[in-house]
């Protein structure tokens, strides 16, 4: 029995048709990102085989130039974005400075090519994160100004999750046809879930309010359960689908937190809010309202189910 399942390309084109001002530029941009991540997914799946890890400049059994997967992903994403002809500034977490591809390019794109890449050689899920702004000449814009954001999770299956302001949609790669199929329509974060996701090893370094919160949720009648992968895309994806609270807070060693505002926190906070959840940074303020000071700025982040964030805020 034939049942048509929408591909990512069809979905994005349909979204474009709904928008009277669309010129097809965003569709072209997203399609180039899609092509890049399909190639990255293929290499991630083979990463244990072609000895692609850790070496630079050698050649491998496949006579390909072997480079670290994150360098490869970084170069590939940049080239694909440049080839799209739709970008002004492109900023990679792997690079010190943004690159101005075309001053008149319509969109600025920030990306983390392979977040959690330290997990590659132990076969733990890793991900690509991207964040898209209108090119208004100024590279640094607050997260609220994002026109779209998304991630790709290279896991037991490869998933492309994104939002362009009309809810969050998930697409699962069907490797037999090389297409992302619309598997998760309009993802909504459950309002509550007793999952907490944090690196408990730093508990002695956390602020008093965080320590009191963590003690309290473990003493509830239904104690909260720890779920922590240590790979942001995996932890946020689980939080998006199942609910709970993901935290990478400030601590005495990292008073501004560990995760990058422009490359990790803004795109993930945008997605969580689009899916009906909440995201807060210092003093309970939304990270999307932070005026970025520099490209590599780190901020504390707590995000997830609306009611879980409300409970957390009562401890501030
Ligand atoms: P911590 C991975 O190195 C990463 O950048 C994120 O993917 C992950 O959420 C975080 O760092 C883990 O941080 O404090 O647990 O080492």
From TrEMBL:
This is Fructose-1,6-bisphosphatase class 1. Keywords: Carbohydrate metabolism, Cytoplasm, Hydrolase, Magnesium, Metal-binding. It is an enzyme of class 3 (hydrolase). Homotetramer. Pathway: Carbohydrate biosynthesis. InterPro entries: FBPase_C_dom, FBPase_class-1, FBPase_N, FBPtase. Residues 189-313 form the Fructose-1-6-bisphosphatase class 1 C-terminal domain. Its cofactor is Mg(2+). Substrate binds at residues 115-118, 199, 228, 258. Residues 7-185 form the Fructose-1-6-bisphosphatase class I N-terminal domain. The lineage of its organism: Bacteria, Candidatus Roizmaniibacteriota. It comes from the Bacteria. GO terms for biological process: fructose 1,6-bisphosphate metabolic process; fructose 6-phosphate metabolic process; fructose metabolic process; gluconeogenesis; sucrose biosynthetic process. Belongs to the FBPase class 1 family. It comes from Candidatus Roizmanbacteria bacterium RIFOXYD1_FULL_38_12. Its EC number is 3.1.3.11. GO terms for cellular component: cytosol. Its main location: cytoplasm. GO terms for molecular function: fructose 1,6-bisphosphate 1-phosphatase activity; magnesium ion binding. It catalyses: beta-D-fructose 1,6-bisphosphate + H2O = beta-D-fructose 6-phosphate + phosphate. Mg(2+) 1 binds at residues 93, 112, 114. Binds 2 magnesium ions per subunit. It is found in: Cytoplasm. Mg(2+) 2 binds at residues 112, 115, 264.
């Amino acid at each position: 029995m034939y049942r048509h399942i929408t591909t990512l390309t069809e979905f994005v084109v349909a979204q474009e048709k709904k928008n009277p001002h669309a010129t097809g530029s965003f569709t072209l941009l997203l399609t180039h990102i899609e092509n890049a991540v399909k190639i990255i997914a293929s290499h991630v799946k083979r990463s244990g085989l072609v000895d692609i890890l850790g070496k630079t400049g050698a050649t491998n059994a496949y006579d390909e130039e072997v480079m670290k997967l994150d360098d490869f992903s970084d170069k590939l994403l940049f080239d694909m974005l440049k080839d799209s002809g739709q970008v002004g500034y492109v900023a990679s977490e792997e690079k010190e400075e943004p690159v101005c591809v075309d001053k008149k390019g319509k969109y600025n794109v920030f990306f983390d090519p392979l977040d959690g890449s330290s997990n590659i050689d132990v076969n733990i899920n890793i991900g690509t994160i991207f964040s898209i702004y209108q090119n208004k000449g100024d590279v640094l814009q607050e997260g609220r100004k994002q026109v779209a954001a998304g991630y790709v999770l290279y896991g037991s299956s490869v998933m492309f999750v994104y939002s362009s302001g009309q809810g969050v949609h998930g697409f699962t790669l069907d490797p037999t046809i090389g297409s992302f199929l619309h598997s998760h329509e309009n993802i909504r974060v459950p309002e509550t879930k007793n999952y907490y996701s944090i690196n408990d090893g730093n508990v002695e370094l956390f602020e008093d309010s965080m320590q009191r919160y963590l003690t309290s949720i473990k003493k509830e009648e239904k104690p909260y359960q720890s779920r922590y992968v240590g790979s942001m895309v995996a932890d946020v994806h689980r939080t998006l689908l199942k609910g709970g609270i993901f935290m990478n807070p400030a601590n005495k060693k990292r008073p501004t937190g560990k995760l990058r505002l422009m490359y990790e926190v803004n795109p993930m906070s945008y997605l969580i809010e689009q899916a009906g959840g909440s995201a807060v940074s210092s003093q309970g303020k939304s990270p999307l309202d932070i005026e970025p000071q520099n490209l590599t700025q780190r901020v504390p982040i707590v995000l997830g189910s609306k009611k879980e964030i409300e409970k957390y805020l009562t401890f501030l």
